[in-house]
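Supplementary notes for students who missed Thursday's class. We covered one full example, reproduced here. Read the sequence, then the structure, then the short commentary at the end.
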Amino acid sequence: MDTLTPKQRSERMARVRGRDTKPELVVRRLLHSRGYRYRLHDKKLPGSPDLVFPRKRKVIFVHGCFWHRHEGCRLARMPKSRIDFWSTKLNGNQARDQRKLAALAQQGWSAMIVWECELRDLEALASRLEGFLNDEKDAE
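Structure (token representation):
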């Protein structure tokens, strides 16, 4: 049983954004402060990646641990109510992510996923991001 009324649930879900989220803004500021320039949400690419580096043919997705099911992360817990709905929804998100990553790879793009929980250690994240962007080989 849901603890919120349908109206309250609708209002809460309406606040969930797909772009310009707090984790995405943190990653953007971090990269910009280190001199990287990028395009945002290129709809021509599969999955409309959060950050696109056209010259390098690299993209970065900033994923919420809950919505994209970050394995082993405490933020990716399954809700206790409406398990059938959430299981279908979240597994569908994972399947879509895999399809989009495969389509990007087929088009010659390298992709990196930054998880919401990785923002706790910005220096480690910055090192990982720079390694991905400066490496001529694919990295994920």
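Commentary. The first strand starts at residue 39 and ends at 40. The chain has a mean pLDDT of 90. If anything here is unclear, bring it to office hours.
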